[in-house]
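Forgive a beginner's question, but might I ask you for the amino acids of a protein and the tokens describing how it folds?
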Amino acid sequence: MPRHTVLVVDDEVKMQRVLEIMLDDMGLDVLRADNGQAALDLVMREQVDLIITDMRMPVMDGITLVRTLHERNLLPPTIVITAHGTVESAVAAMRYGAVDYLMRPFEVETVELAVRRALNLGHMQRENRFLREALAQGWQDFIGRSAVMRELYQLIDEVAPANVPVLIVGETGTGKELVARAIHQASKRAGLFVAINCAAVPDNLLESELFGHVRGAFTGAIAERVGKFEAADGGTLFLDEITEMPATLQARLLRVLQESVIERLGSNRAIELDLRVIAATNREPRLAVAEQRLREDLFYRLDGFRIDVPPLRARGEDIELLAEHFLEQQARGLGREPPQLSSFAREALRKHAWPGNVRELENLMARVALVAPRSDPDTVLARELGVTTPSAPLVIGSAADADNLHLQPRIDALERQLIEAALAAAHDNKARAARLLDVSERTLWYKLKKLDIK
């Protein structure tokens, strides 16, 4: 676990030294500042987990320091020190964001209690920020009862309690992050699940995202930043698309995995960590090594336990189950009743190759739920999956009804039905409707005029 750093802010050197001794006995690192402005400068360039500040100081007093920290959205919790008769000022500081105050003179036990409470609060605030991000991204429980999914569940159960790195391999859209989250939740780790997509962050920012930085580490680093590694301390770090990480960062990642220690950019202070790393890739790892996309030594370090996530086309019996789940979910979000899938739709879903896997299916069901009140879901599925929409059965009649067998009216009725369905699916876009009907736009306009379709 990393050592916490406490910043003591007081213009009295003797009081600084008293607090430093107390905090050092608690196993904490201590920084010192003589006034609020000096403290603010330190917070902008150093890692600070807690501030203990006096109220009355030259240059910048304690209330101004607390208010400035709050306005700049800087993170450390703050304890204010107050003398007799100035409790009102301490309460005012707490309105600006201070978490506690100490009355002078104070006992060692009082300081220890306040400091541990404030550090725990800071840890919870950090957890809450990451949990809010995770909830905003959203994720669903596993859905599937096919043989390959039952095998996947068994692998998750086997590896979750073990403290070994996991390498998850699967095509894009199969749910690799979902597998990683399941492993974390089934483990005994109490910390956060922190995810980062190595392909989604520009190379020049990825190092800072992973390891954090201090103020001034590079152009634009105006304040310190906690990286994903520190945020995941005590929990799990998920590195998605690991084969897209630059080679230089792969070398640094290998060292972190070997030593469980990181340094923020611009700092030489070592931070010890206790976390589990789960990596994922949509490439075959050994081929990525051969193509020099993945360091061989890093591959062997990450490949403690491999899990292959099956593509959707290998989960035939799960497809309808997933489609109904996503359709109900999307319709509920729109405040609508979910449309029913026809036998044609179910057959089309089963036969589709699903190159985008579960993510493709989810997106398709979102479109079906969106257009269902205005159009037949079969039309949407036919367009998206490249299959032929079944036409309504043509009622010919019986031999006794032979006078009603004229061909042209029947053809016109069928053309009208198909054209109106295409226009509805294309939201009245004539060019798109013509493509759906596999005719030229000129032909479509001719038919519209001939059949008097408005």
User: Anything to note?
Assistant: The chain has 19 helices and twelve strands. The CA atoms of residues 261 and 272 lie 5 Å apart.
